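Entries read sequence, tokenised fold; example below:

***
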Amino acid sequence: MCGIVGIAGKSPVNQPLYDALTVLQHRGQDAAGIVTCHNGRLFLRKENGMVRDVFHTRHMLRLIGNFGIGHVRYPTAGSSSSAEAQPFYVNSPYGITLAHNGNLTNAHEIARDLFREDLRHINTDSDSEVLLNVFAHELQAQNKFNPTENDIFAAVTAVHKRCKGAYAVVAMITGYGIVGFRDPNGIRPILFGERETPEGKEYIVASESVAITSLGYKVVRDLEPGEAVFINAEGQLFTRQCAEKPQYSPCIFEYVYFARPDSIIDNISVYKARLRMGERLAQKIVREWGADHDIDVVIPIPDTSRTSALELANQLNVKYREGFMKNRYIGRTFIMPGQGQRKKSVRQKLNPIELEFSGKNVLLVDDSIVRGTTCREIIQMARDAGAKKVYFASAAPAVKFPNVYGIDMPAKDELIAHGRTEDEVCTMIGADRLVYQDLDDLIAAAREGNPHIERFDCSVFNGEYVTGDIDDAYLEALQASRNDSAKKKKDGGEGSGPTIVDLSNGS
């Protein structure tokens, strides 16, 4: 999972790009990068770490120019090496930099073809570098000294024919402009906006609406599945549908967990969708537990579940309380390799307020249950704080299958709900009772915001992958690369050290 942004401005874009990345920081805390363009020269800074740690004053001063793109990253494909921080760069044709959110499901096959047929070299394990080289090769195939919007859209059309999976992309073609495009299923979010300045109109392309509005831009709209937008060096904007059979299939987990609640994605308010999740989950509790349930208090697992938990409490007419204080300097635990590290992280991350638990029947609400490590530790923390009974509610259905479209969810054997019943999961996490959101209710909660979306990617819940190219062999290979031991080997092996990646002669 990553966050992307591109700005075609009339004044320096280094600060706006930095500000946008801080707003998108929740989408990636592993690495960050910005590249800008001035008089045909690129200036790049990227490294592992949070945005505030990667960019210092000396770096910002070097990032000159009115056009640029930025990226924040979680490692999904490839490793967490700083060599795989984005944006990526290729010098032919024209000089292209690219930032990508998502995951190509046929990256290995494309990489082989790029080497054997297109005579292009891939230097990392990142599918984003593969995507960049495909786009560069297809743009070069247009054989134009001065590419027009038609040539760029033709290259995107060719990308759609070669690449499978999920991809929301911003790319900068040196001296020509910025292009953004979305895969034909629209799995990952991408929007564009505009604002008037004394020097003329500026444009922005970003993963979430909040990155657009927080900078003073007005959201124009989401890119449709398969659509591309191009802003040329003169500041003219062009859009075109570049896919033959696009179909809206956005990832429903964006609304459950990843997107900021103040974002609107594909005309669906993330905040409103989460309210509806809480409402429908409350209805299920009344339906299955009865109106005479013995829940004394509803407590969210901060932060993402707060919205759903609040509405759930309102619907049940039960007190809502903040029972955990969060240390915001600990990373997301389901991405951390190793059970021991995850358990230690949970205890460092959350601290209970004992008076909210003591002698009470507590319903803990989380956005989802992935490995189960976090909720098991939290349930025990609630008991240690004096809770009489601890119930657990998930605003999402049981996560039973790996995500192949850009979320670094673990191998299926590490998913606590894979191959287990709800009662078995309840026993494993140590709850007195467990309730999951029904998938139909989750879909309805999201779709109510935009009835025109007929299908969501719900593959982590039902194993139905919308690209239609995922089989058991693919999932087995994915498991071999994503389990804890593979991650430790990958991140501790060769090539994981720091690299100097600043094209402006210094880092």
In short: Residues 333-338, 492-507 have pLDDT under 50 and may be disordered. DSSP finds 17 helices and 22 strands in the chain. Residues 139 and 155 are 5 Å apart (CA to CA). The radius of gyration is 23 Å.
